[in-house]
Amino acid sequence: xxxxxxxxxxxxxSEGASLELRCNYSYGATPYLFWYVQSPGQGLQxxxxxFSGDTLVQGIKGFEAEFKRSQSSFNLRKPSVHWSDAAEYxxxxxxxxxxxxxxxxxxxxxxxxx
Amino acid sequence: xxxxxxxxxxxxxxTGKKLTVTCSQNMNHEYMSWYRQDPGLGxxxxxxxxxxxxxxxxxxxxxxxxxxKEKRNFPLILESPSPNQTSLYFCASSFTGTSGLQTQYFxxxxxxxxx
Lengths: 114, 115
Known about the structure:
The structure holds two protein chains of two kinds.
Chain A: E1 3-5, E2 10-14, E3 19-21, E4 24-26, E5 32-38, E6 44-50, E7 56-58, E8 64-68, E9 73-78, E10 87-94, E11 102-104, E12 108-113
Parallel strand pairs in A: 2-12
Antiparallel strand pairs in A: 1-4, 3-9, 5-6, 5-10, 7-8, 8-9, 10-11, 10-12
Chain B: E1 4-7, E2 10-13, E3 19-25, E4 31-38, E5 42-51, E6 54-57, E7 65-66, E8 76-78, E9 87-96, E10 102-106, E11 110-114
Parallel strand pairs in B: 2-11
Antiparallel strand pairs in B: 1-3, 3-8, 4-5, 4-9, 5-6, 7-8, 9-10, 9-11
């Protein structure tokens, strides 16, 4: 069975600082990987996804993530955080083949200080 | 506009009173799913459907029912709600891209309080 671990429950950064949110997954083969963002009171918005190929994936809002098979990780990064990035971020893993299950991590809450 | 809609957005009810949360998508997606989100637990899948009349249990199906009579609709039914079903519920739909990947699009959520 697949699983996702987001080790950081809450991260606080200053506006303009760089950001890295950690995500580790467990899956027997190469997974599909996603990052979603949830702003307060809102639904989930897809930031980026990894299918295959280039391990550095670019997403919306200036985010990127890197798939590292050897570390079973898919960390999300942004070089300069804006106050509007304050939200909760979820990493998710999807199984390939006929299994349509998407498993989410428990989320990392990002606070941005002015 | 391509979207997933849910109704109602907010609902307060009492234990045992049957309720239905509707979900509709206008993207002609085959796959639809229901999740619940609870603090500290992230999103957990309740049920999913791969097409009309095809549904299956997710991780936390107890106390819920679903049906898929039309491709665009996937209602979530709580026959006898209990307080432990107080949660934020999300419906999602997805297509299967050329790689077979599921890219899920989420509705705005339904916040349910069961007294």
